[in-house]
Amino acid sequence: MIGELLFDWVTEFILDLIPKRIRKVAGIILIIIGIVISLIAIPFSLLIGAEDTDAGLLIAILLAIPIVFIFLAGFVLILSTKDNRSMRII
Q1: Residues whose CB falls within 8 Å of the CB of residue 58, separated by 6 or more in sequence, listed in order
Q2: Which one of 22, 28, 44, 84 has the lowest number of neighbouring Cβ atoms within 10 Å?
Q3: What is the pLDDT of residue 31?
Q4: 83: CB partners within 8 A, 6+ apart
Q5: 60 vs 46: CA distance, rounded Å
């Protein structure tokens, strides 16, 4: 309960420090970076996963986690520029 309130307060504070135009541009840039990284990582993960080893699966998961966070951060920055607070992810 307290952790959730603190997290909401910190994210609101950080997002309020960044101007709306910069948030939108940064969000678009993060989404583009996520797309480029995923286009690089997917074939690499398929090649490693084709060997059917546990290390290949671990590397694929370790590559997927940052990509998901990059997309999530980009969408949060874009959605935080809207005035309607019900559209926010966080």
Answers
A1: none
A2: 84
A3: 92
A4: none
A5: 8
